[in-house]
Amino acid sequence: MMTKKYSLKNIAEIAGDDQDFILLVVKTFLEEIPPDLTAMIEAIENNNRDLAYHFAHKMKPNFEMFGLNISKSVTAIESWTKSSKNISTIQNHMDKVVAKTEIVLKELKEDFNL
Predict the structure, then answer these.
(1) pLDDT below 70 — which residues of the chain?
(2) How many Å apart are CA 33 and CA 114, to the nearest integer?
(3) Of 7, 41, 68, 85, most Cβ neighbours within 10 A?
(4) Per-residue model confidence (pLDDT) at position 99
(5) b/e per residue, 43-81, with b = 16+ CB within 10 A?
């Protein structure tokens, strides 16, 4: 069996045994993260740093809740938005966030039959 790229441990701690709540949190993640991720990437590519920060900051708690272990990359993106550095300085962080998120979205859809 392959190891999952996400963890429901944090959500289970909040939800207790409430499977409906866990399902709601998963569905919300699946609905909100893809458009937010796309918006963040577009904002970064368009050098709209305020908007890039907004979406990175908005997604970070969700990534942490699902145990994605990409907080360092998201924080690097947030820091980049407050700098004058070139986009190339965060490209690998962006790639890591996108790759990990896409895997987790796929796993969640499969695991919850959504």
Answers:
(1) 1
(2) 15
(3) 68
(4) 97
(5) bbeeebbebbbbbbeebbebbebbbbebeebbebbbebb
